[in-house]
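We modelled the chain as a single entity of 319 amino acids. Its sequence is:
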Amino acid sequence: MFGAVKSTIVVPGEVMYVLLPQQAEQVLANVADHPPIFLRHLFHVDWLWNAQENEDGADWIGELVHFLSSDPRLRGSKIAIQPRKSEGALWSGSAAELKEMLESRLTELSAEFVVRDAEYIISVFASKDCIFAGVSHPAYNISDWNGGAVRFQREEGQISRAKFKLLEAERVFGIDFTAFHQALDIGAAPGGWTSFLLERGLNVTAVDPARMHPSLVSSPQLTILRKNAGEVKFKDNQFDLFVCDMSWSPKLTAKLVSELLYALESGGTAIVTVKLLSKKPMALIQEVTAIFERSRMQVQRAKQLFHNRDEITLYMIKY
């Protein structure tokens, strides 16, 4: 996306500090227009304190509070403070304690401190050697959740954690699932995605040779086909939503789903997870999306959600 990139690993596999050869406004606009697949969260570093460049005992907290207090954008605004830290960080307390401390020392801003729906986000990351901080609009952080960690509370009787994937997709992709009427869920058992769609008021056809969860089978909105997906036949344009979360080979999944897309009406939506079983994930993603594109599917987003593991979620519309 940017050509030359100089990066420093802060937390292996999780956090990096990147220097880019463009102005911050250009970088943030580019990322907003072309959301990356694997990056969940970012913030522009407006303020950096390096322990190696300062004397022992220097008051980085006071300097940070002064920097934030001097930002006119924050006065009277709705602000979310999102602190994170690595192991052995310069801040010895918890991230929650850092948040409480900053809120208590930023009272002169006359701001409203919130968790969601903020006008501005103050991001702070404390590592072993540095404190990184920045102020940004939520839209420029990729995710307005702290570190992109989208967390939902597990519900009583919830069938599986797979439901969290659709809950997150609903937010990240901006999908109004209540606008659909007829859904096809391939590889549905035990029913995590089916239960979510039923709650949104859809009629669901669930296909899987395994048994669905007992709490679902009596639903008048649910049709269960205990068959392999390759054995079922439907009417053309029967569904306006197609979902699939199977633990199959990604290319086999793409081929199987593509062979059933005749049942999805033009303008219909498909949500499909793709397992990344290859050491070359970008090449695999390109191969899989090419299979879907040959089946008249337009990929709106490819994203590794917080609740995805070794997989991504594809959001597609049939043209």
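As a brief sanity check on the tokenised model: The two ends are 28 Å apart (CA to CA). Helices lie at 24-33, 60-69, 95-105, 162-172, 192-199, 250-260, 281-293.
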